[in-house]
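All the exercises in this workshop are built on plain-text protein records. Sequence and backbone structure share a record, each on its own labelled line. The question running through the whole workshop is how a given chain folds. The record below serves as our worked example for the rest of this section.
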Amino acid sequence: MTSADLVEIVFHGRGGQGAVTAANLLVAAALKDGNKGVQAFPFFGAERRGAPVRAFARISHDEIHLRSEVYTPDIVIVLDESIMDIVDVLKGLKKNGKILINTRAKPGEFDFSKKFIVATVDATGVALKHDILVGGMPVVNTPILGAVPRILNRVTLKSIQGIVRSKWKGELAEQNVKATQNAYDAVVVKS
């Protein structure tokens, strides 16, 4: 496996937003798209609803032998913009790395947009639009996943939508599939 082949991703979110589920769904879709090596795993701590959480994903064309957390990601996915006030989400991000942020802001509004490829999407707005709520709070994992194929060529929107349909059934599945499409169409990327 060459280092150019392996893509490492860190998800930053808050408990209850679906970061761990997003990592699992992403690698399932990547496997469906022909990647032979995939991993997804959470970072465990004192998780509770609203507390900062991290999840990791690795995608490769070959088997992955690494078993550590991701320290130098190629991509960072931020499910809650406010987490950036308390967590250094850019820590270890590789040169020319990509960051996808759930925000209403445009990519150029972030100081680090000169150093990294920044993509933004209002995943919260998409979740609200499609009534993807748990306990009255928007769950942004499927909307943010819809934006991922715009910055990662190892996974397609079609595969993400197929995995979403296999995880949920009926109307809930269709709400989430529509949310992935809506986010895919709405994401803004600045390189």
Observations:
- The longest helix spans residues 170-186.
